[in-house]
Specification:
21 strands; 11-stranded mixed sheet; 6-stranded mixed sheet; Aldehyde Dehydrogenase, Chain A, domain 1; 21 helices; disordered N terminus; alpha/beta; globular; 2 domains
Length: 578
């Protein structure tokens, strides 16, 4: 997602010195045992108090992010910072409090009913409650978590909220280092909150140099946890990150970043010694490490009886998956996978190009973006670039006609963390054949296992094509599969665990391992499946043409902060004005 250990700023912030790092670790380590024994009801009350801090600092954090990313805080694009910043953090805290309330009463955290999907159980986890139902039902958005094959309902319920079911004497105090991402401002807090409230560990959170400006804001928002020694927030780059990861008082590490940063921590710097360690399966870091490390996110477009309006809506859906946060998202749409011979291909690509062209170029604020952009665009025989914007911005680029059989194609192997979308065509224009070919291609040729999107017409969910679609969803080795919706929506939902498809070994980590944002404290998770209507009644907030996203974002933050349905009418009004 980002270079969590990278340090690529022209004027980097001052890192926290080793003596101060040692003091922060010692303080958090000393509080670990008390934190592990804190009762669920007290944790729930703390989560609510931290919510008030996040709400209090929300506007300041949004203004700081807009300044850093070159956004006008009065423009719709500022809605990204409201929604991907304090809104996500507030959702997670509210849901954690709900779950801990249930645990305090001797129950499991609430989930929807269990359903059977072949040899798998699934829990319908979204919409999560009455507020979600009111907000997201008009979009047709729902989600279920699918569990590992063979896991039964009794095992599932017994394993939920596992840490909180341990006897107090068995709750070992542990300390986790969280290496925060620099691109999306809810990630550092959300990752730390997962470790604190779901897993019962105290945290040292090292911010990324790219969004180091968050430090004072997070210390204010989460001040009670900081004051109690349950959380420490420190600054620095690669050197400080490595020092902390190998610190004797740190029990485990979580990183949201890139696989390169992960391997530098776990296996050491690139070179023969690292390769020898990998061959021996002897990591340099002999600690538990969880991670979320990016993805070449495919968008599979299933052929079907789309109307002109359907294609226009889905073309902008694709554009939104690409342009959100200037495409500096681990989950940004990165590769259109179209049916070979599809009669609508040229029309759909033209509509996607038009949707991108209607979206103003964004500041290339993430370090190295322009150089990466050129490596994916320069010299390509088939590339469509939108008009250039002001100095310091990058135009959107659509690179078409990529050969699906070219094993050396960089766009399949490396995540283009910049304003680029690729396109390839494979299989045939018959839905069953296309789904089989696209699933094999995504699983075997594309780097990453974080998330994939599928665009599908409702008529293709019936009969034999529908069975093929269900098989594809089952077989896709991704932690989230989104149908007619950007998988990034699952990142924000809270009740949908966020992470890579399970099973990656440390020496071939791909998109990482472990799940975060798991506010329902689930175990044995395989993937989340989220879906939306092909043509929602209300415009999705990540679409680039959304005219009131900044107003909607502010109002949704107020709704989450209060939990009161009295804020629903204002949120509805902003959504309907889009």
């Amino acid at each position: 997602m980002s270079e969590s250990l990278g340090f690529s700023s022209s004027s980097p912030p001052t890192g926290t010195g080793h003596p101060s790092l040692d003091a922060a670790v010692a303080r958090v380590r000393a509080a670990a045992a008390d934190w592990a024994r804190l009762r669920p009801a007290a944790r729930a009350n703390l989560a609510r108090r931290l919510s008030r801090g996040v709400a209090r600092t929300a506007e300041r954090s949004v203004l700081a992010a807009c300044a850093a990313k070159g956004l006008d805080p009065r423009s719709p694009s500022a809605g990204e910072e409201w929604l991907a910043g304090p809104y996500v953090t507030l959702r997670i805290l509210r849901q954690l409090a709900q779950s801990l309330d249930a645990v305090a009463r001797g129950r499991n955290p609430p989930t929807g009913r269990l359903v059977r999907r072949g040899d798998q159980l699934a829990a319908r986890v979204f919409p999560a409650d009455a507020l979600d139902d009111a907000l997201y039902r008009p979009l047709g958005i729902s989600a279920e978590v699918r569990f590992e094959p063979g896991v039964g309902s009794a095992e599932l319920r017994a394993s939920q909220a596992a840490f909180h079911k341990l006897p107090e004497s068995a709750r070992e105090g542990r300390t986790c280092l969280v290496l925060g991402a620099g691109n999306v401002n809810s990630i550092p807090a959300a990752d730390a909150l997962t470790k604190l409230f779901v897993e019962g560990k105290t945290c040292v959170l090292k911010l990324n140099p790219v969004n180091a400006y968050l430090g004072p804001l997070l210390e204010d928002a989460l001040g009670e946890a900081v004051a109690a020694g349950w959380l420490a927030i420190v600054q620095g780059g690669a050197e400080e990150g490595s020092y902390l990861a190998h610190h004797e008082a740190i029990d485990e590490v979580h990183i949201t970043g890139s696989d390169r940063s992960h391997d530098a921590i776990v296996w050491g710097p690139p070179g023969p010694e690292r390769e020898a360690r990998k061959a021996r399966r002897q990591p340099l870091l002999a600690k538990e490490i969880t991670s979320e490390l990016g993805n070449v996110t495919p968008i599979l477009v299933v052929p079907g009886p789309y109307s002109e309006r359907d294609l226009m809506v889905q073309a902008e859906n694709v554009a939104g998956m690409v342009t959100h946060n200037a495409s500096f998202n681990c989950i940004a749409g990165k590769l259109l996978v179209l049916p070979r011979g599809w009669k609508e291909r040229d029309k759909f690509l033209a509509l996607v190009s038009e949707a991108l062209a209607r979206t103003a170029p964004r500041s290339a604020w993430y370090p190295g973006a322009e150089a990466r952009w050129r490596t994916y665009v320069d010299g390509r025989p088939e590339v469509r670039v939108t008009p250039a914007g002001p100095r310091g911005t990058l135009p959107w680029a659509l690179v078409t006609g990529l050969d699906p059989d070219d094993a050396s194609e960089r766009a399949f192997r490396d995540e283009p963390f910049c304003a680029v979308l690729g396109e390839t065509s494979l299989g045939s224009d018959e839905p069953i054949e296309f789904l089989a070919a696209a699933t094999r291609f995504a699983n075997e040729r594309l780097w990453g296992t974080l998330a994939a999107a599928i665009i599908v017409h409702p008529e293709c969910e019936r009969g034999a094509p529908g069975e093929a679609l269900l098989h594809a969803i089952r077989e896709l080795r991704y932690g989230t599969v989104g149908l007619n919706v950007w998988p990034g929506f699952a990142f924000a939902a809270g009740t949908t665990p966020w992470g890579a498809y399970p099973g990656a070994p440390l020496h071939a980590i791909q998109s990482g391992r472990g799940f975060v944002h798991d506010t329902r404290m689930l175990a044995h998770v395989e993937k989340t499946v989220m879906r939306a209507s092909l043509r929602p009644m209300v415009k999705l907030p990540y679409l680039p043409s959304h005219r009131t996203a900044h107003v909607l974002g502010r109002r949704l933050v107020a709704l989450e902060a209060s939990g009161s349905p009295l804020h629903l009418p204002a949120a509805f009004a902003a959504a309907l004005m889009a």
